[in-house]
Amino acid sequence: MLQSTSNKGRDAYGQWFADQGMCVDLAIHDPDKDIPNPHIHGMLTMRPIDRNGYFSKSKTRTVYRLDENGEKIPVPLPGTMLTAVRDPNGRWFAVPDFKYGGIQKVGKHGRKEYYREKIRVNDWDTKEFLFAARREWAEICNRYLSPEQQIDHRSLKEQGIDRTPAVHDGGERYYSVVSGRAKQVVWRTARSSDRKEGHRNEGSEQRIPTAGPQAKTRGKTGQSLSLRRHT
């Protein structure tokens, strides 16, 4: 039953990415049954596939700037008579005033030049898309979780919870601590005032001796913690 539910959640999440036009490969892992830590891994494409079935070489494409009437905006020849037009977003552009002899710029191949701009072909590498993906995963998970197990993709601040965020040290330290194999673990905390100001200042350290590999840190909050196993 649990495996079936996990597959349904994975497939629903994968379909959400596919609906955006992405290629996706998702897997739900829970490698150690004695120490449950289920999590999801995903591989996603950042470039769209073109009509020939190949990945696009660029994440952007060039398009013509259009005026309020939907017409391409001509580039004026330097020194010619000018007037101005506006695009739908309210931005003004200097253009040749053809009524008073204005001349449009012509390229080296004899083609008339128009204002152009580069736009993203998708928003897959933006923070907005990342937040949308996190929200979708939370909604899918909560369909199958009990009320007391519901998860929230938002930050503590967005949830209105006044608590200092924990420092993520990775799965290796987690397994070492839970299984009792760690020899020395460095717990790091940051002052709440430092968190609010967004600074990476030095926090407090408390060394807890156990048994096993030795944990090392550079002594500053926010920096990486590494574990090395000794044979």
General description of the model:
The chain is of the alpha+beta class. The protein has three domains: 2-51 and 125-153; 61-120, no CATH class; 171-228, no CATH class. The chain contains five helices and ten strands. It has a two-stranded antiparallel ribbon with strand order 1-2. Strand 9 (214-217) and strand 10 (225-228) form a beta hairpin. Helix 1 packs antiparallel against helix 2. The radius of gyration is 28 Å and the shape is elongated. It starts with a helix and ends with a strand. Residues 182-231 have low confidence and may be disordered.
Global mean pLDDT: 76
Identify low-pLDDT runs: 182-231
Global morphology: elongated
User: How many E-type strands?
Assistant: 10
Which structural class is indicated by helix and strand composition? alpha+beta
Tell me the span between the first and last alpha carbons. Answer: 40 Å
What Rg, in angstroms, do the CA atoms define? Answer: 28 Å
Summarize the structure.
With 231 residues, this protein is of the alpha+beta class. The protein contains five helices and ten strands, in the order H-E-E-E-E-E-E-H-H-H-E-H-E-E-E. The radius of gyration is 28 Å and the shape is elongated.
Question: How would you summarize the topology of this molecule?
Answer:
Elements: H1 2-19, E1 24-29, E2 39-44, E3 60-64, E4 82-86, E5 92-96, E6 116-120, H2 127-144, H3 156-159, H4 171-179, E7 184-189, H5 192-197, E8 204-209, E9 214-217, E10 225-228
Antiparallel strand pairs: 1-2, 3-6, 4-5, 7-8, 9-10
Helix pairs in contact: 1-2
